[in-house]
Design goal:
Blueprint lengths: L7 E12 L6 H15 L9 E4 L7 H9 L5 E3 L7 H14 L5 E8 L7 H11 L14 H15 L3 H15 L13 H6 L2 E3 L2 E2 L8 E10 L11 E10 L15 H12 L8 E4 L5 H9 L8 H4 L18 H4 L7 H12 L13 E8 L4 E8 L3
Parallel strand pairs: 2-3, 2-4, 9-10
Antiparallel strand pairs: 1-7, 1-8, 4-7, 5-6, 8-11, 10-11
Amino acid sequence: MSAKAKGIAVLGTGLAGLGHAGGRSEQDIIAQAAGKAVAASGLTLGDIDGIITSSLTSPWWVLRMAEYLGIRPRFSDSTMFGGSSFIADIRTAQLAIEAGECEHVLICYGATPRSAAGSTAINQMRAALDPQPYEHPYKPFNPPSSYALAAARHMHEFGTTREQLAEVAVAARRWARLNPDAYSRDALTIDEVLNSRMISDPLTVRDCCLVTDGAGAFIVTGADHARTLHARPIHVLGTGHAHWHRQISSMDDLTVTPAVESGTRAFAEAGLRPRDIDVVELYDAFTINPILFLEDLGFCPKGEGGKFVSGGRIGPGGDFPMNTNGGGLSFGHPGMYSIFLVIEAVAQLRGEAGARQVPGAETALVHGNGGVLSSQATAILSNAR
């Protein structure tokens, strides 16, 4: 491939092991998702010469997956930014492709926290390997306690209400009820969110993401020849990534995230503005997240996110379709989630989302969050170059 090629496009995508993997390993379901993505791209595994993947548990994950898939990549990367990784990875893939290091990059992830045994031991291991000295002595229930701090501060500073937080969860559930792949599809009301079990004040269990199994994968290649491989490639118009802290106690302002920086970069590169986006897919590990990100990405002024999401606006039939697969709150959340944002955006832009399809969607913004509002990654996609 010519090193002069500019831009990349998403080809095929794949999902596997959603909800409960039924005893299959993480590598099993990733391989299944990857196989679907490769086949849907008009390629074979032998054509894949780049791989980007990471894991919450293994620093050797990219070596393990390449071995498991039987590929010998010319380019590989396993940089871990938490849940934002697989949107940040899009930029890495673009740089590698444009530099001529590889042609076809597989980005993949999967985990089985719902079905796998030993989750308590794994969490203890993570705490030991990633000490947070300003917080661990106080034994917070993280990550919920950290996000609860951000939610409480937003409520105090801007008058955001628990009902407005609940609107995020209810809208996600309404989308999930249209998605046969979603894990939680029962009806959900504002009152049920408010009256569910308190996890970390002001967040109840329905303000918190699911714990499920699941794997996802997608293939990116140079935009110049994407259409020779796929009838409907989805073009990456702009990306941005920023991280300012690791521990929530090191955040300068609990209501302002690095999405301010990642979003600015992505919009500038794409040459678009928030008003140009048809579908928005935001990492919703907790109901406060989309409220913060809508503000920081420029969809509404700081402090007005709660009002912005109210009145059914972000649910089916609303004028701002957001998290159309059901999100981490109702679709699924296997430890890290952003890969599913990309896969859903691609489905929307190709008109393949079934009952939840947003009519006429041409542009989509995907935004991933890692750590405790720590790492933020934004990408803008389009079905036209």
